[in-house]
Amino acid sequence: MGQIVVLDQNMVNMIAAGEVIERPASVVKELMENSIDAGATKITVSIEDGGRKLISVTDNGCGMDGEDLGRAFEPHTTSKIKTSKDLHGISTLGFRGEALASIASVAQVRATSRAKGQDGANCIEIDCGNKDSISPASADYGTTIQIRDIFYKLPARRKFLRTANTEMGHIAEQFTRIALSNAPASNKQGLDLTLIHNGKELYRLSDKDNLHSRITELFPIPSSGISENLIEAESNEKGLHILALMGKPSISRTSKKFQYIFLNGRFIRDKFISHAIKEAYRGLLEPNRFPVVFLFIRMRYEDYDVNVHPTKSEVRFYNANLVHSQILGCLREKLLGTDLQTQAQLPGPANFPGSQGSPPAGHRSQAIADAMAEFFKKHRPVQTQEQFSYKSKQHLVALRPPTGQVTESPTGPATAFAETSQAEPEIRPEQRKFLQIHDSFIVVQTDDGFDIIDQHAIHERIIYECLSRRIRKSKLESQKLLIPESFEVTPSGADALKTNAELLEKLGIELVPFGPKTMAIQAFPTLLSKADPLDFVQDLIDLLESKDVNLDGERLLDEVLNMAACKAAIKAGQRLTMSEIEQLLLDKENTESASRCPHGRPTTIKFSISDLEKQFKRT
Ligand SMILES: Nc1ncnc2c1ncn2[C@@H]1O[C@H](COP(=O)(O)OP(=O)(O)OP(=O)(O)O)[C@@H](O)[C@H]1O
Ligand SMILES: [Mg+2]
């Protein structure tokens, strides 16, 4: 018995009309949402040529009988709402009864479905709105919908489609959103999800993993540092259940791209919620940085209206102030109660506070801790001018105070060796002290102890921040190489370079053909003068080739800047002069998120003198 009814004209008018299908990714979204509404536990999405050639979605949901299958592609047909009252408490992802009709009017569609309990499946083909009759088919329970040659009768819209990689990036983003909102949880079964492009499996997400492991799988790039830098907050008050996984300030981004907000399983964009997130991080981030946040909100369906926008990604809260204040309160409280600095974990006697259960420090940091403890034991307190006479022997130097503000000179902030500031560091009266050990770490005395700074990691962060700031303003400044450096390039490498021509231009890298399979680097960014151009470009090609379909422009740029910063930064094992160290520390003071390197690893480990005193049984 069919479930679908044709809505009366009154209802049709109530549902705002609009463009649902903008590009292949919108089709993927609508089809996956239909599968979820059909109670599927497993969905497989298979794409060819970025969705231009084929979009196929198979689910194991409730399926449709022949009658429903015929009706599903008619305009304004739905099984999800029946009367206007139902519009005030929509619990399904779809309800407008227009997605399949819209899709079928702009492409070739073949849909096969078998309802639970039915002996056989049925199949229907529709070519840009022209329906064939239903025919029997053989298939398992569930539904498969295949969309071919989208917009093929609408050249203007087909022309609007971007490259397969770009379209695939949009599809991967839609898939990611659905995967995040349907991760397994203690009270909910997750969805088993697969995304395939041109026969290659891009994602295979099991219904057995959990939200954290799903985030790791969806954002696998090690340098994204996302999954290992999340703080969890939860609250359940005033009819609002909030679960937030908040990125530490150190992994903030330059756009809101990594803010995933879900309301009862639906990905939404909402200005009140965005504002609450921004407010929660106030003081922890520079105004032009955006935190990474995964926010899952549950509330009564009756407390908001989803019939606001054709793509259903905007809602209207009946009590937006409450939503705003609950989210702000939950996030802010957790952030303020979390120590976002990296503290040293000193191993020690059993009675040493915090030692139980804490992982032992690594071999190297143990050695450093021992060396420093010894140093402070001998020389504490190192505060007066007389004691400062170790200076030459102990490699101790004075450092000028932090300015507390970013020095954005005409040439940009100082970046130690990438772009050395000409200013002679001043010496403040109450001098601070530092020394380099093992040519890799800088130890700096602080007011209440000392910091150990990883010279490579901190320099990476400094360069990364500088590059990001510059590149978002305009392209990077570059200089011509005296002798162009040539290199061999594979056809796919050349293709990757061509696809990302805009990115190369922004980076200030100029490449010219130099023979059939050869290219030459003509210009290279000034800021990366410490990196080897050939080595950099070759690694860049590898990165572009490997990341082709999974990243959108913003994420790719971030990846490239990470790589650039890593290559241009001073290395571990590199001896630094006193003024170089001084400059590095000065730049650190002026760098946002200096406590972490761009990969999310700590740049600085703090040791407090009171902990050391306890270690030495002085207290
Ligand atoms: N994969 C599926 N399995 C079972 N039934 C489906 C499936 N896809 C669609 N249907 C049926 O077809 C109907 C029409 O789907 P369609 O996507 O056009 O509208 P909708 O989901 O009701 O609303 P919306 O336009 O907001 O998505 C659905 O209401 C549902 O009954
Ligand atoms: Mg739908």
Break the fold down into its secondary structure elements and pairings.
Elements: E1 5-6, H1 9-14, H2 24-37, E2 42-48, E3 54-59, H3 66-72, E4 77-78, H4 99-104, E5 108-114, E6 121-127, E7 130-131, E8 135-137, E9 142-148, H5 155-160, H6 164-181, E10 192-197, E11 200-205, H7 211-218, E12 230-237, E13 240-247, E14 259-263, E15 266-267, H8 271-280, E16 293-298, E17 304-305, E18 316-317, H9 320-336, H10 363-379, H11 391-394, E19 397-399, E20 432-437, E21 441-446, E22 449-454, H12 455-473, E23 478-488, H13 491-499, H14 501-507, E24 510-515, E25 518-525, H15 533-546, H16 553-568, H17 578-589, E26 604-608, H18 609-615
Parallel strand pairs: 2-10, 14-16
Antiparallel strand pairs: 1-4, 2-3, 3-9, 5-6, 5-9, 6-7, 6-8, 10-11, 12-13, 13-16, 14-15, 17-18, 19-20, 20-21, 21-22, 22-26, 23-25, 24-25
Helix pairs in contact: 2-6, 8-9, 12-16, 13-15, 15-16
The structure holds adenosine-5'-triphosphate (ATP) and magnesium ion.
